[in-house]
Amino acid sequence: MLMLSFKHVVITASLLLSFLVRAELPPGAESLDLMPWPRQVVLPDVAQKWVLDNHLAIAVSGDDLGEMPTLWRSRIERQTGWQLLPAPQDSTRAGIQIYIAKRVAAVPQLASDESYQLIVTPQGATLAAATRFGALRGMETLLQLLRRDGDNTFLPAVTINDAPRFPWRGLLLDPARHFLPVADILRQLDGMAAAKLNVLHWHLTDDQGWRFASTHYPLLQQLASDGNFYTPQQMKEVVAYATRLGIRVVPEIDFPGHASSIAVAYPALLSAPGPYAMERGWGVHPPTLDPSNEKVYAFIDTLTGELAEIFPDAYLHIGGDEVDDSQWKQSKKIQAFMRRQQLADSHGLQAYFNQRVEKILARHHRKMVGWDEIFHPDLPHNIVIQSWQGPDSLAASAAQGYQGILSTGFYLDQPQSTAYHYRNAILPQTLDVETQVAKDEKAQSWQFTMPRLKGSAVTGSFTLIDGEKGWRGFIDFSGKTRRALRDIHWQRDGQLSFAVDTWMGDTQPVLNLQQGKLSGYFLLGNVRYPVSGSALAAIPAGLPSQVPDQAAMKNILGGEAALWSENVTPEILDIKLWPRAFAVAERLWSPQEVQDEANMYQRLQAIDAWSVVSVGLQQQAESSRLLTRLANSNDIMPLQLFASALEPAQYYTRQHLKFQAGQYNQFAALNRLADALPAESNATRQLDQQLQILIAHPQDKSAAQAVRVQLALWRNNTAWVQPLLAQNSVLKPLQPVAEQVQRLSELGLMLLDKWQKGQGISDSYRQLAQRQLDDAALVQDEVVIAMVNPLTRLLNAFKVQ
Ligand code: ACM
């Protein structure tokens, strides 16, 4: 089955083999741990390999790749532990031959050709690329292929034809909220190149910090950076480093909102008189540039000139998001200006401002990028609109002829499962469900309200239709277009569950629908949010999904992962990004058909290890360092084991808890165990996989053994980890969590025994177990015990006697 979804992209030399399941591929093929997965992979009928030794050399012809071949050789040394012999004088003897068809400018552009063909035979590897950029991408693929078996270090024989699906594959880094030193930025660039990401979107300014050292407006960095900013020389160094890796750098200076840092330095440019103090809190703040003040445009003109001097890219990001218009509304001068200019409202005023800014950028030969809010029909069509508001917004601007990139669903600062990011389709999708209710079908609609810990409640309605082929349904979140429901299940007692991906994450309602009343919770990622609601008399009208036509769809250039840094510091930067960003990179690079989540996770795990060894990413090192600090000791194994049972509370739950605790600001310590955790627990995901096998096949011994070993490990670890939790005030709040991990592991082991013996459970036992799981499902100290959901799945599988 697995292979079928891959048949577009994995073909073997013999036609027959291309339809076989993955496990039946020639030896070696089943473990091609490539990410992003290439457009086409052709394997020989009989597995062959090129066995490597330390004579390995790399020859390049057709363009000058500078020191890259030397760097690749040092990565091969890191991957093998070898010391390579000096490269031979005679380049025709090099094992890796790189042929570049066309010499182009070294600075990458949106239209750069990144295609390549990589052929590995038992005699060596040949990489043929259209341009230097294809060679860079192809070498990452080659390095991912390098592996070791019992006898040899080798590359499997293979032919790979590859090119990206989208030309704009970015990563937003935000040094404004918490500063990120240059060395950390450079390392992320290495990671990006490894993942074939090609745009660093550098969010250089925001309310809490101005990080771009201006020559003409030095008070910005002097007064609004706490001493943490990049000099022009440093920014040029980053650009040069990125250029060598074939990565564009698009700087963002956020106008006219998110301007508190400008307000501190140059209050006269703002829409209300100062003085202003540095903003330390997160969120959206009133300070906003004054569009009626000509000095504002002179300021932007000068800054654009300074930026253009440092950043060669054709695009410049002007932000434009989340403009709080309270200062505009309160200013008599600005209101009078709007009347004179015949601007109807604040959005009109922002559009006026953006048109002026766009002309300034054009004079500096720069095209404008901005967030959804800049969308306005008066702007020219060469701008790019980056969507954080979702596919509806992206579809609307694309349909109007505006180029766009998607970031909704790729916010890596929200801990979410990698699968959620991976499912993010990028192109707006048609509603894939029949919404008409046939004569012999029954439908029910329910409205719901889900309060959040910060901000307004989420409201909407959903409709379930009981049809010939089972249940189907759709959901209408207020203000959003209609979405289809997946995995509709009715449990005992009329309890309903279903799944739908939303802007908040993987959303799984678990609901009781009784006597016209709706209760229960929405599972957002791994956090339960209580909901209430009631039955509706009729099916709501809803909003039809917006899908641009094929021509307009071409306006969508790709997307960007975003790592906003409210909860990120340099010491945990790599934990937050890697390896998850590889999955986003795959969505942006690989054919749309590459969608198998289990296969993705399998490759992701291998790529995680590869990225540490070959690329030098620090996710493991950062985690070890944080756990060492928490344990006050190098003996961190108990804490690692305990951590493997936990996940950070997903979606923006942690931020919202900090808001409630008065810790929603730049000075809140990020020193909890929650900060050291990856977004999802691999151990628990694997436990869940094994449990699913076991639920389908109660006699599967290997699945049962895997579940038993994992649960016993967690159970037995409690005595070991408790002294560590007791010795550090930061860990103490987790003492009850450790006890719950033990009790849940014991419950799991008990259920496992009963399941293997084919026993049922009594209703009172079920209720007791359910209560224990419900108690353990609460967020504690910003973490969640991840095994609650897999164990709930097992409990629900039992026959109740
Ligand atoms: C954004 O998330 N405000 C771009």
Automatic annotation (TrEMBL):
> Which Gene Ontology CC terms are recorded?
lysosome; membrane
**What sequence ranges are listed for the domain Glycoside hydrolase family 20 catalytic?**
166-446, 550-591
Keywords assigned by UniProt, alphabetized: Glycosidase, Hydrolase
* Pfam families in alphabetical order: Glyco_hydro_20, Glyco_hydro_20b
State the source organism's domain of life.
Bacteria
One GO term of the biological process aspect:
glycosaminoglycan metabolic process
Cross-referenced Gene3D superfamilies? Chitobiase/beta-hexosaminidase domain 2-like, Glycosidases
Q: Where is the Beta-hexosaminidase bacterial type N-terminal domain?
A: 33-163
SUPFAM superfamilies given in the database record: (Trans)glycosidases (SSF51445), beta-N-acetylhexosaminidase-like domain (SSF55545)
Which InterPro entries does the record cross-reference, listed alphabetically? Beta_hexosaminidase_sua/sub (IPR025705), GH (IPR017853), Glyco_hydro_20_cat (IPR015883), Hex-like_dom2 (IPR029018), HEX_bac_N (IPR015882)
Q: Where is the active site?
A: 322 (proton donor)
Q: Does the keyword Zinc apply?
A: no
GO molecular function list? beta-N-acetylhexosaminidase activity
UniProt similarity note: Belongs to the glycosyl hydrolase 20 family.
Put simply, this protein is called N-acetyl-beta-glucosaminidase
